[in-house]
Design brief:
Elements (H helix, E strand, L loop, with lengths): L20 H5 L1 H5 L7 H14 L6 H14 L2 H12 L23 H8 L17
Helix pairs in contact: 3-4
Amino acid sequence: MPRSADTPQPNPPRQPPVPDEQALLDPYKVLEIGRQATLDEIKQAYFEQVRRFPPEREPVLFKRVRAAYDAIRTPEARAATDLFLLHPPEAYEPYKRPPAFDLAFHPEDREQYIEAWSETAQVDFRRDYREILL
């Protein structure tokens, strides 16, 4: 028998959010709050997420929620996390061989060579000049 619009339909099972790379790094997205949230709002959002994903049923998501809460639960931890989000670390690159140095003498190196080995770079000539009084 087809269901009518008046018949209550069973609630579909809750699907956990699909983890994306940004959500794994951003505790505000995990807790689904804004960056301007107060400490009380953070605590409330944490307990809502714990009720949504209890450790008995969703241990992986609970660990993610707990880690996000720990990252922003105190003002000191929140400041460090916000700084990390503002300036994320550089992406890891495997070891690269350093560039090979060129030991050949180039014409543009001549001025640096002369300055390094002459007295012009070693003597302060500012004392030899004085103001002209008119």
